[in-house]
Design goal:
Layout (H helix, E strand, L loop, with lengths): L7 E4 L15 E7 L5 E7 L7 E4 L9 E8 L5 E7 L30 E4 L5 E6 L4 E4 L16 H6 L36 E6 L2 E7 L4 E3 L9 E4 L5 E6 L4 E5 L5 E6 L3 E6 L4 E5 L8 E4 L5 E5 L5 E3 L17 E5 L6 E5 L16 E4 L6 E3 L8 E4 L2 E4 L9 E4 L5 E6 L4 E3 L23 E5 L2 E6 L5 E3 L17 E2 L7 H5 E4 L11 E4 L5 E2 L10 E6 L3 E3 L6 E2 L4 E3 L4 E7 L4 E8 L2
Length: about 575
């Protein structure tokens, strides 16, 4: 083959003169004996310390085996030799040089990251052998044709040797699953029983991994609003995981958000049709459920303690079946059998008196009270076992009222004075008790005091009173058949007549006053009730004077036995005014 200049480092012991001084500048003859016994001769001067150092050039290395270097003083004298295997520290410094023979070996004295290199003209490595890590790096490796016996250079072999594949600048790793007759698969198989995982890492930390059980992990090295996405074919995300704000969003086909799960707002579900939101909170200090209208205002919320609040729009809060024949109800209570609000879909539902469409409010136990109340304190309307009590929070002149459509009180209860009253238009009846009902068999009206009848009106209109006086009955046309004074067979005179004989006459207390002997002139009569009518019947001769006292007559009246004088009292003027007189 071609010549190869061998660069042979050499260092001898110091050469000395007979007097012991260092022999400098002495020319030494060196002979290199080749394996085939041929020789190559060199000459070199000793250094200042008597040694021969440096390199020996010119040896043509074309054989394998061991070369021997012999050194002696030129012209005779001391000599020595050393074996030198030609297998390392070789430098190719000629063109087209070729190694021939078998079993060529390059070996370092010490392992090195650049033990053997092949460089291009610019000095850039295209091949590097690293004996520290047993790695061979090829800058651009292209395999053409069939690779036979490549197992020792496979990725499996690289893995077995504990090596890794590291990319270089702008050199991608592409794996193409080609379209073939029988398409290939790319499979990472985690064997049964293995605890290994398939992982993609950033700076040594898993960003994606699949464990032996199939559990998948996605983890950002830096939090991002688009940390994980599932996209449609057009690239719009339908599932978006935001690790920066700890939220998961679901989006519609146009990218509009329809659901969000986050640490701050819980679960929000958006109805696309009307842009309304439903929020399910997870924070113990916040609402666990919120419903929003299309304007973003809260209409319903449930607090962490379970309290529900409804802030309804103008249409209100609806509980309905949307079927005329199907009932609907709201049940309230500690159990489902305590109380309900219901609208029947058919008669008899919720109540035997109910018809379809009625509104029923009921307690489901006769022992439970139904209480309507305004404010705190005692109930205002209480239904207890069918008995109803109406009780105002504060006594009032209008504690209970029944009014007409125009607002007129037809029936009222004054809890301050204890009165029942009615306010009607002029000419109307204040109270009408109708006895036409066939089930009515008792009295029309009964007024009692401590359980004792004081005033009774029978169905036929007969009035019975415990006592009668002018202040209580001033009709003027009452007969004994109309008034019973508590006796079985009362007398008219006992009921309506009193006697008097004095001037001034006492205030009348009956409908008729009998004037007996003992008085000659009457000038005054005691004050009566406004509108009170009284008849004076004379049993003696007496003169009733006009204008002298509080009597206003059609002149003086000289009465004798059996004559009568009818007067009416004007409470405003304080006068008794003559209505009529009779001289009998």
């Amino acid at each position: 083959g071609g010549d190869l200049n061998a660069t042979l480092p050499f260092n001898t012991s110091p050469l000395k003169n007979d007097d012991g001084s260092v022999a400098t500048g002495v020319r030494m003859a060196m002979t290199v004996n080749k394996p085939d016994a041929s020789t190559v001769n060199f000459k070199q001067l000793t250094d200042a310390d008597g040694r021969i150092r440096g390199q020996i050039y010119g040896s043509v290395i074309d054989q394998t085996g061991t070369y021997t270097i012999q050194v002696q003083v030129d012209g005779g004298g001391p000599s020595g030799s050393a074996n030198f295997p030609i297998r390392e520290h070789a430098q190719l410094d000629r063109d087209n040089q070729v190694f021939t023979g078998n079993n060529q070996t390059f070996r370092n004295d010490t392992d090195s990251a650049t033990a053997f290199r092949v460089q291009d003209a610019s000095g850039t490595d295209v091949l590097n052998v690293d004996t520290l890590t047993n790695t061979v790096t090829v800058a651009n490796l292209t395999v053409t044709g069939t690779c036979t016996g490549c197992a020792t250079g496979s990725l499996q072999n690289a893995y077995d040797n504990g090596n890794t594949i590291t990319t270089t600048d702008a050199r991608d790793i592409d794996i193409t699953l080609a379209d073939t007759a029988t398409d290939a698969n790319f499979t990472v198989d985690i064997a049964t029983g293995s605890t290994g995982r398939f992982a993609v890492q950033a700076a040594g930390t898993d960003t994606f991994s699949v464990g032996a059980t199939g559990a998948a992990l996605f983890r950002n090295s830096t939090n991002s609003t688009t940390a994980f996405q599932v996209q449609q074919a057009d690239g719009s995300a339908v599932l978006l995981v935001d690790t920066q704000n700890a939220s998961v969003k679901f989006q519609d086909a146009s990218g509009g958000e329809i659901m969000e799960v986050s640490n701050g707002t819980g679960v929000q579900v958006k109805t696309t049709a009307n842009n309304a939101w439903t929020n399910l909170g997870t924070d113990g200090s916040a609402d666990i459920l919120q419903l929003y209208d299309s304007g973003g205002s809260t209409v319903t919320k449930v607090s962490a303690s379970g309290v529900a609040t409804f802030t309804t729009p103008a249409d209100g809060f609806h509980v309905r079946s949307d079927d005329a024949g199907t009932r609907s109800s709201i049940q309230i209570g500690r159990t489902s059998s305590e109380a309900l609000l219901g609208v029947p879909g058919a008669g008899g539902q919720y109540s035997s008196d109910a018809n379809a469409g009625d509104f029923v409010l009921r307690t489901n136990s006769a022992s439970a009270q139904l209480i309507l109340q305004n404010g705190t304190g005692a109930g205002n309307i209480i239904i207890d076992n069918g008995n109803t009590t109406i009780k105002p929070t504060t006594d009032s002149a209008t504690a209970f009222q029944v009014q007409s459509t125009g607002g007129t009180t037809l029936l009222g209860v004054d809890t301050v004075s204890g009165e029942i009253f009615s306010t009607v238009a002029s000419g109307g009846d204040a109270f009408v008790l109708n006895t036409a009902n066939t089930f009515f068999s008792g009295n029309l009206l009964v007024v009692q005091n401590n359980g004792t009848d004081q005033f009774v009106i029978s169905p036929s209109g007969i009035i019975t009173t415990a006592s009668v006086n002018a202040g209580s009955i001033v009709d003027g046309s009452i007969t004994s058949a109309d008034i019973a004074n508590g006796a079985a067979t009362p007398a008219k005179t006992a009921s309506i007549t009193s006697t008097a004989a004095a001037d001034p006459m006492p205030a009348p207390t009956t409908v008729m006053v009998r004037v007996d002997a003992g008085v000659a002139t009457i000038n005054d009569i005691g004050a009566g009730a406004g509108g009170q009518v009284v008849v004076y019947r004379f049993n003696t001769t007496v003169t009733v004077k006009d204008g002298t006292g509080n009597l206003r007559l059609a002149g003086d009246f000289a009465a004798d036995s059996q004559d009568t004088l009818t007067l009416v009292y004007d409470s405003t003027a304080g006068f008794w005014t003559e209505m009529s007189r009779s001289s009998n």
